[in-house]
From TrEMBL:
Belongs to the 'GDXG' lipolytic enzyme family. Keywords: Hydrolase. PROSITE patterns: LIPASE_GDXG_SER. One of its GO terms (molecular function) is triacylglycerol lipase activity. This is Putative carboxylesterase. Residues 114-315 form the Alpha/beta hydrolase fold-3 domain. The active site is at residue 188.
Length: 357
């Protein structure tokens, strides 16, 4: 498939209201190479894993054990040099502050923050796997990032995962950070949880954060649309079968998925400015399009960006991919435009008083 030119196009939604899709740039040659390599390695490996599990060659309990402990094996993935980290665990789950001191203040003195939910299909990854991504995010937006290791399958249902994210959001509010200076963000499963968190916060009557950023969000737990989507053949990392595994293993109850669990089935009235980034050939592009349509229906100020031939969460390759570095820069520009400036003196004094209370 040829690279797409930069620009934009209009996409019709089911409600007959069009959505503008931005095409930020043509794929770099490095991204094209990465797309081909991932297709012939990661995609094949994951498809093989599904086959082995479906044919009971690998027992489910063994696969779940490996996935549950996968993040612990990634302790060797160090953040960029100079990055600061600080544990900030909650009673039921772990969390970690990550910030780049060159561009972001320390959490104790910051007048804003990013609340981040990592990806991993609701079944794997955590603080180690995403430390580099959130460090780059901190540098891009100029804020410290609270990375949340919410409970996952098989220890928790997605409803519990959303509850953990909500608890982390309450923690930021209780620390004295103004809601309009909080960015809720996440990738893949974490991107879906970011939308779920905002829905839960709205139901609880909590104030709305200042912005929402979702990278390739996994937000529809009914797999039928993805199985018939064209991108199910073109995605270089994930397939509908791969994404259906955690749904069958821990989301569905007695083989049934409640539509209310999927953020794509809700209205987004009152949501903050929202940025959605996804690869043009990803199977999760369908989830991104559905979320954008819900934003359009609720008159939410949003932007949907499709990155040409970008693999799933290509941001992780920012060390070598110019496309990924530009995607982070786009997030930075979006967040700075969405958040109103902090009141430097009065708010800092209030923040410090609350932190020492």
């Amino acid at each position: 498939m040829a690279a797409k030119p930069a620009g934009r196009y209009e996409m019709d939604t089911e409600s007959n209201r069009s959505v503008t899709v931005e095409l930020p740039r043509r794929a770099s040659w490095r991204l094209v190479v990465a797309d081909v390599l991932l297709r012939n390695t990661v995609r094949r490996a994951l498809d093989s894993l599904v086959w082995l599990c479906d044919h009971h060659i690998i027992p489910r309990r063994v696969a779940l054990w490996v996935l549950e402990h996968f993040d612990a094996m990634l302790f060797v993935l160090l953040p960029p040099r100079g990055t600061r980290t600080m544990r900030a665990d909650f009673p039921e789950f772990r969390a970690e502050w990550v910030w780049d001191p060159k561009t972001a203040p320390a959490p104790a003195t910051a007048a804003g923050a990013v609340l981040y939910m990592h990806g991993g299909g609701l079944v794997t990854c955590g603080l180690n796997s995403h430390r580099r991504i959130v460090a780059r995010l901190s540098a891009a937006v100029g804020l410290p990032v609270l990375n949340v290791e919410y409970r996952q399958i098989p220890r928790a249902h997605v409803v519990t995962s959303v509850g953990d994210c909500l608890a982390a959001y309450r923690g930021l509010l209780d620390s004295g950070i103004e809601p309009d200076r909080i960015v809720v963000a996440g990738d893949s499963a974490g991107g879906g949880l970011a939308f779920g968190l905002l829905l839960a916060a709205r139901d609880e009557g909590l104030p709305t954060p200042g912005a929402l950023v979702a990278i390739a969000p996994f937000a529809n737990y009914d797999s039928r649309r993805r199985f018939s989507h064209f991108n199910n053949r073109t995605d270089s990392v994930l397939s509908a079968r791969i994404l259906d595994l955690p749904i069958r293993w821990g989301v569905a109850v007695n083989g049934t998925v409640d539509p209310a669990w999927s953020p794509v089935n809700h209205r987004f009235d009152g949501f903050p400015p929202t940025l959605i980034q996804v690869g043009s050939r990803e199977v999760l592009a369908d989830d991104a399009h559905l979320l954008a349509a819900r934003c359009r229906e609720a008159d939410v100020d949003f932007r949907l960006q499709e990155w040409d031939r970008a693999p799933h969460v290509f941001h992780a390759g920012a060390d070598i991919l110019p496309d990924a570095r530009e995607a982070f820069a786009e997030i930075g520009r979006f967040v700075r435009a969405a958040l109103r400036p902090a009141d430097s003196d009065d708010r800092k004094v209030t923040r410090l008083k609350r932190a020492s209370a």
